From TrEMBL:
Family: Belongs to the thioredoxin family.
One GO term describing the cellular component: cytosol
UniProt keywords, alphabetically: Disulfide bond, Electron transport, Redox-active center, Transport
GO molecular function annotations of the record: protein-disulfide reductase activity
Listed name of the protein: Thioredoxin
KW Electron transport (keyword) present: yes
Highest taxon in the source lineage: Bacteria
Residues covered by the Thioredoxin domain: 1-105
InterPro entries: Thioredoxin (IPR005746), Thioredoxin-like_sf (IPR036249), Thioredoxin_CS (IPR017937), Thioredoxin_domain (IPR013766)
NCBIfam families: thioredoxin
Entry keyword annotation includes Thylakoid: no
Amino acid sequence: MATVALTTENFDEVTGKDGIVLVDFWASWCGPCVRFAPTYERSSEKHTEITFGKVDTEAQQELAAKFGISSIPTIMAVRDGVLVFSQPGALPESALESLIEQVEKLDMDEVKQKIAEHEHGDAKAEHAHS
């Protein structure tokens, strides 16, 4: 499967479903982004069950700003609608494969539980201050 261009219009729809979505924030003027593209493309052909999205930060400045992207390329992984990984820098193919393996092995019930605990912790902290 080829990569999918992500925009402010389709981002939430694509990343909000069950399964794994990788997102590559890139720009055409960015050398490391351009060099990383074939690696990302090869990986998308190998892992057809994963959606490989690309966000052109020039065309989608609002999306880049929403995620605080200050360095490109930045690679994100979203699983079952939850952002589980975000790191700037082009990954060598072996590191990209390793990232995919780790995201596939995540216990999403555990991840969602930790998020819920974190959110409740924040709420408790707010009550303590009032």
